[in-house]
Amino acid sequence: MKFDIITIFPKIFSAKGGYLDESILKRAQKNKLIKIKIHNLRDFTKDKHRKVDDKPFGGGPGMVFKIEPLIRALGSILRIKNSKLRIQKKTKIILFSPTGKKFDNKMAAQVAKKYDNLILICGRYEGVDARVKKVIRNWKLEISEISIGDYVLTGGEIPAMVLIDSISRQIPGVLGKQESLEEKRGALGAAVYTRPEIFEYKGKKYKVPKILLSGDHKKIATWRMSKK
Ligand code: SAM
Predict the structure, then answer these.
(1) Are 186 and 224 within 8 A, CB to CB?
(2) 125 CB contacts (<8 Å, ≥6 apart)?
(3) Whose CA is nearest to atom 21 of ligand 1?
(4) What is the pLDDT of residue 157?
(5) Is the distance from CB of 191 to CB of 130 less than 8 angstroms?
(6) Is any ligand 1 atom within 6 A of the Cβ of residue 122?
(7) Which atom of ligand 1 is nearest to 122's Cα?
(8) Tell me, what's the pLDDT at 19?
(9) CB of 155 shorter than 6 A to ligand 1
(10) Does the model's pTM come out above 0.90?
(11) Distance of alpha carbon 133 from its chain centroid, rounded?
(12) Cis? peptide before 196, omega within 30° of 0
């Protein structure tokens, strides 16, 4: 899976030791199971101030992402030559919006199965010029507006990381045996414990449930299910 991210804050994604550069996602990139490419929207401007936004028509506060740099960025990612686009059935463009379709694990699994290239547009301020969606539809490409929850964030960068993380986990080979999908092995929401068996704090003893020390894996599995 290739993730192309369009953002005005590329360092959020490229930081050494940042979220995408640690642990499972780092290993997935190293093993070429996922590829993350960051595109600075300002690189697709043509004026000396590298302006990506402007005031909204009709008035109101805030700024809106201009259409031209975004279409140039998409054109470059999609390698559109002389207005011609090769058919890209396995490509999906995602525009983040607090009012978009609510993202969940089911969607993550479907997307991981169906597509091999996701282009993530991280909005800021008042969002993106609405005509961007029309151009994409005229290219006959799939576009979805996605929300990661009922709250308003400052930008689409955190939503992009949420999607990359949750979708990557669904790609065969990304999780090792030890980490395999929690939702498939019924481990979501289960109470977990580790050493010491007894933790003493301010005269009180906090013990690990006995059943977990029994070695009876069948009973343990049933107990775990009952504790959710
Ligand atoms: N007036 C804008 C609207 O109605 O879409 C709000 C823009 S919000 C302040 C700035 C950007 O953050 C959005 O364009 C989007 O990219 C991102 N964003 C904010 N909340 C989000 C959410 N819950 N899910 C996904 N993206 C979100």
Answers:
(1) yes
(2) 53, 62, 63, 64, 65
(3) 98
(4) 98
(5) no
(6) yes
(7) 16
(8) 96
(9) yes
(10) yes
(11) 20
(12) yes
Residue extents of the structural domains in the chain: 2-180, 189-226
Judge if the beta carbon of residue 96 lies within 6 A of ligand 1: yes
- In this prediction, residue 163 carries a pLDDT of 98
Q: Is 78 helix (H, G, I), strand (E, B) or coil?
A: helix
Rounded distance from Cα 123 to ligand 1 centre (Å):
6
pLDDT for 182 equals: 79
Instruction: Report the pLDDT value the prediction gives residue 38, as an integer from 0 to 100.
Output: 98
Is the CB of 124 inside a 6 Å radius of any atom of ligand 1? yes
Q: Report d(CA 199, CA 205) in Å as an integer.
A: 6
Ligand 1 centroid – CA 152 distance (Å): 6
d(CA 133, CA 142): 10
Q: Is the CB of 159 under 6 A from ligand 1?
A: yes
Type and span of the H or E element at 221: helix 217-226
Q: Report CA(156)–ligand 1 centroid distance (Å).
A: 6
Determine the distance separating the centroid of ligand 1 and the alpha carbon of 59, expressed in angstroms. 19
What kind of fold does domain 2-180 have according to CATH? Alpha/beta knot (3.40.1280)
Low-confidence ranges of the chain (pLDDT < 50): none
